[in-house]
Amino acid sequence: MRRTTALLAVIAILAACGANGTTTTTEAPADTTDSGTTASGEALTLYSGRNENFVQPVVDAFTAETGIEVEVRYAGTGELATTIMTEGDASPADVFWAQDPAFIGGLAKEGYLTELPEDVLSLVPERFADADGRWVGITARARVFVYNTELVPEEELPADIWEVTDPKWKGRLGVAPTNGSFVAFVTGMILAEGEERTREWLEGIAANEPQIFDGNGPIVDAVVAGDLDAGLVNHYYLLQRIAELGEVPAANHFFSDGDPGGLVMATGAGILASSDKPEEAAELIRYLLSEESQNHFLGLFEYPLVEGIGTPEGQLPLDELPTLDISLTDTADTLDPALALIAEAGLS
Amino acid sequence: MTTLAPPAAETAPEPSSPRRRRAPLPLWLLAGALMLPALIPIAYLVWAVVRPGGFDAGGIPAGRLVELFGSTARLMVAVTLTTSILGAATAWLTTRTDLKGARLWSTLLTLPLVIPSYVGALAFLGLSGNDGLLSRALTGMGLQPLPVFSGFWAAWAALSLWNFSYVHLLAVPALRRMDPALEEAARGLGASRWRTFLTVVLPQLRPALLSGMLLVGLYTLSDFGAVSLLRYETFTRAIYTQFRGRLDVTPALFLSGVLVIVALVVVWAEQRARGRAALYAHRPPRRPVVTALRGWRRAVAYGFLGTVVAAALVLPLLTVAWWAIRGLSLGNPVGAVAGDLLRSASVSAVAALITVTAAVPVAVLTVRHASRATGALESVAWSTYSLPHLAVGLGFLVVAVRFIPAIYQSVLLLIVAYVAMFLPQAMSAAQTGLRQVGPSLEEASRSLGVGPMGTLWRVTLPLLGRSLLAGGGIVFLSAMKELPATLLLRPTGFETLAVHVWSASSELFYTDASVAALVLVAISAVPLYLLVARDLHRT
Fold first, then answer.
1. Which residues of B424-444 are buried (b: 16+ CB within 10 A; e: fewer)?
2. What is the largest CA-CA distance in chain A?
3. Would you list the DSSP string of B192-232?
4. Residue A174 β-bridge partners
5. Is residue B131 part of a domain?
6. Partners of A13 in the beta sheet?
7. Chain B residue closest in CA terms to A180
8. Which residue of B has its CA nearest to A177?
9. If you measure CA to CA, which chain B residue comes closest to A1?
10. Which residues of A touch B131 (CB under 8 A)?
């Protein structure tokens, strides 16, 4: 019975700590509570489809500079887009930052996003923002074919994205078909090549029995470790691994002009129509496009979209990357067919 | 020790129970109200499937459903069979043979329960592949490295290793309580040892094994973390894929509804199969028959137990610890775990406290006023317990956001979900306690003029202390490990240890994931050891 009492005491103490624990997370630091910048005194809520290492330092710097507290919900872009759709007007989110243009475009099309101020939109090249001004690109990334240099000789590299369906890649390829950037790439392919050609390509990939992953990072890790020959991913994962590990037996292979496999996409951010703090929300997006933030993203090897910030080390400048003649805004229109085709091919 | 599983033989109402008072209406209303939070999201999900046009709105082709049924059922059958063999064999070896250190072995065989399946899967990934711990050892000896563990066999191994303890826990008391006279009679009539086991021991073990198989089967149906990390396609993974791969939540809701219906059918089938197999076994007066193992048999037995403990406990912990230490020494970034730990522990403790409190009226109703109707109530409770947390979490999410937005993404909703999901664990513990106490003391109190509430407060509750504490400990453990519902329902910024392990694992940030996983396992081990493992071989 004495043990019983002791354990009960421990639980009671933990419960008491719990009450503290839950309040401290929402408490603003003393120096920011006085500034009274937030309209309702509550924190701004950011739904982030980008991961924590990438986003949190910038958000912390934003809070330090403006005194606006930000709560960030980290999850996959698709999960968050579905969550926002499910929440509707009750969404706690003020800002959504997606890893691709298609899902955020889909939300815009359904009327969940409000138009951004002109000064925010004008910070980036027109082709990296929504034509109707409901989302703005923060960074850009290119789709690439990452491969292990010891397992894939250079002459074997695919000349274009269609060659990846060649049976010689059977079982050697990693893809993340439910990940936002793969989906966005498929929306681009439909725009450039039409649904039929895209269906054929997806079926060809499925027939090659690729290894299915949830995200790009694990694919690149597997390629670097030599557990996998190659994968379809975004360009910067490998560059980050090289920065961490030094030389690795892997390289990015870029496709050429007009090849949907080399789509350059924006990671888009927008303000929710249901937000009651649109001013602060716009402030946050402006900060994501500030010189400090853009330099932080550059340091993590993504392309900054604000002019004059620079180019990731060892990479071609943004306007020399292979181009595809489509509008990123239109990817929202091909999102539904893209998801349907991926499912029909048995990849999701 | 029945707090982990649906009632098996030993918790069935005693046949010679004294006359029962009819349940007062307020008690019925209270118990019903406590059950409601679990029923609403479930009803909502089932409705999403059976409502007119539900099937079309779901938009999942029938062929795809068949495929998912197939892959999920294959895993369920394989894991259930493997765990019943492992669980029964380890239970027999530690109760019915003269192997040394039975209590220690049994504790070691129970402790794998502190390793959530997603931590086990993380360990699998850390062991295999060119960078894995085991591969490094192999290449060090000039052998080939292991390929990355993934797919069916990996999921089968992980779920078997981290679930067989449930069967062990249920089989041990059953084996200990069997009347040795039956086995002696069989042997005396000339039956071989093996035949005695098959025809006398095994049938008596059936209720416990069936309970264990049900528990493991349902867990396999609902597991989300392990199958996702090890990349084997089951229902839960498909739900998650639909949730993240579509803008519309309807297909995910539809699949969740289908999964809920499947789980309910499994529970129903098990109840039918168990039928009246319940044995009202009382503690036998003598020690059970013990087999003396000699020579190579003894060596094989020790080797078997050692291998199981090594694979289910030592290897995963070693792997995770190795990744943690290696990563820390390389200076890899590690997210703060102190805050996560505090949040996990406090929210789980509060949930455990509330769950135990809520369990008392339900237990009093179902034990002291047992009837056909309370039996039905109990079945309902067990059905809610058996449902996949991912589906239940999605149900809570949608119901909250559409009907009670004020509690959406609040700690309150998270706690309500934990209480709803884990109430049966506490209920079962309280029921066991009530049955052991018996109604005579309460009747004495009533006859001395104390009212029903006064009797509950001054007589019943103090007597139940230990059982309630055990129930609370189990609920605490379950809430600490819970992943999918927490992932969906947590308030923004409210990271828990489980969420931390999950998000770091899915990005393959091994160091970060391993550190958080070690903390989670260490904290979970305390209540498990105090409340379960230590008591197993007592009495």
1. bbbbbbbbbbbbebebeebee
2. 76
3. -HHHHIIIIIHHHHHHHHHHHHHHHHHHHHH--HHHHHTT-
4. A211, A231
5. yes
6. none
7. B245
8. B245
9. B466
10. 225, 227
For B127, the token pair is 């062991």
Walk me through the domains of chain A, giving residue ranges and CATH numbers. 40-140+265-316 (3.40.190.10), 141-263+333-344 (3.40.190.10)
Interface contact A86-B411, CB threshold 8 A: no
Q: DSSP secondary structure string, A240-293?
A: HHHHHHSS-SEEEE---TT-GGG-EEEEEEEEETT-S-HHHHHHHHHHHTSHHH
Residue pair B481/B118 in contact by the 8 Å Cβ criterion: no
Residue B3 lies in a domain: no
Backbone angles phi, psi at B291, to 5 degrees: -90, 130
Residue B353 contacts A, CB cutoff 8 Å: yes
Q: How many domains does chain B have?
A: 1
Query: Could you tell me the two tokens for A17?
Result: 């700590």
CA-to-CA distance for B510 and B321, rounded, in angstroms? 10
Tell which residue, B349, B335, B388, has the closest CA to residue B524. Answer: B349
Helix, strand, coil % in chain A, rounded to nearest 5: 50, 15, 35
Under DSSP, is residue A321 helix (H, G, I), strand (E, B) or coil?
coil
CB contact under 8 A, A22 and B343: yes
> Which ipTM value was assigned to this complex?
0.81
Q: Is B232 a domain residue? A: yes
- Supply φ then ψ for residue A246, to 5 degrees: 80, -145
Residues of A in contact with B473 (CB under 8 A): 7
- Give the count of alpha carbons within 13 A of A96, CB side only: 36
The answer to whether B502 and B440 have CB atoms below 8 angstroms apart is no
Residue B370 buriedness (CB in 10 A; 0-12 / 13-18 / 19+): middle
In a domain, B42, yes or no: yes
* Integer-rounded Cα radius of gyration of chain B: 24
The pLDDT tens digits along chain B (539 residues) read: 334 545 443 444 444 444 556 677 888 888 888 888 888 888 888 988 888 887 777 778 888 889 899 999 999 999 999 999 999 999 999 998 999 998 899 999 999 988 999 999 999 998 988 888 888 899 889 888 888 898 999 999 999 999 999 899 888 888 887 888 888 888 889 888 889 888 888 888 888 888 888 889 888 988 999 999 998 989 998 898 888 878 888 888 899 999 988 888 888 887 777 654 444 445 555 777 788 888 899 999 999 999 999 999 999 999 999 989 988 887 777 777 888 999 999 999 999 999 999 999 888 888 888 888 888 888 778 777 778 888 889 999 999 998 998 999 999 999 999 999 999 888 888 888 888 777 888 888 888 888 878 888 888 888 888 888 888 888 998 899 999 999 999 999 898 999 999 988 887 788 888 999 999 999 888 888 777 666 665 54
- Residue range of the domain that includes B146: 22-285+296-535
Rounded to two decimals, what is the model's pTM?
Answer: 0.84
Among candidates A294, A108, A257, A99, which has minimal Cα distance to A185?
A: A99
CA-CA distances (angstroms) from residue B405 to A23, A203, B399, B450? 20, 42, 9, 44
Backbone angles phi, psi at A269, to 5 degrees: -125, 145
- Give me the torsion for CA of A299, A305, A311, A313, rounded to 10°: 30
Facing B245 at nearest CB: one of A4, A178, A226: A178
Partner residue opposite A15 with nearest CB, options B147, B350, B507: B350
Q: Return left, alpha or beta for B178; rule: phi > 0 is left, psi -120 to 50 is alpha, else beta.
A: beta
CA dihedral B270, B271, B274, B277 (to 10 degrees): 170
Q: How many CA atoms lie within 13 A of B420 on its CB side?
A: 25
- Say how far apart CA A211 and CA A169 lie, in whole Å: 11
What CATH number does the domain containing B29 carry? 1.10.3720.10
| Closest CB from B245, B405, B506 relative to A215 | B506
Q: Say which residues have a Cβ less than 8 Å from residue A334's Cβ, sequence separation at least 6.
A: A102, A186, A187, A188, A190, A191
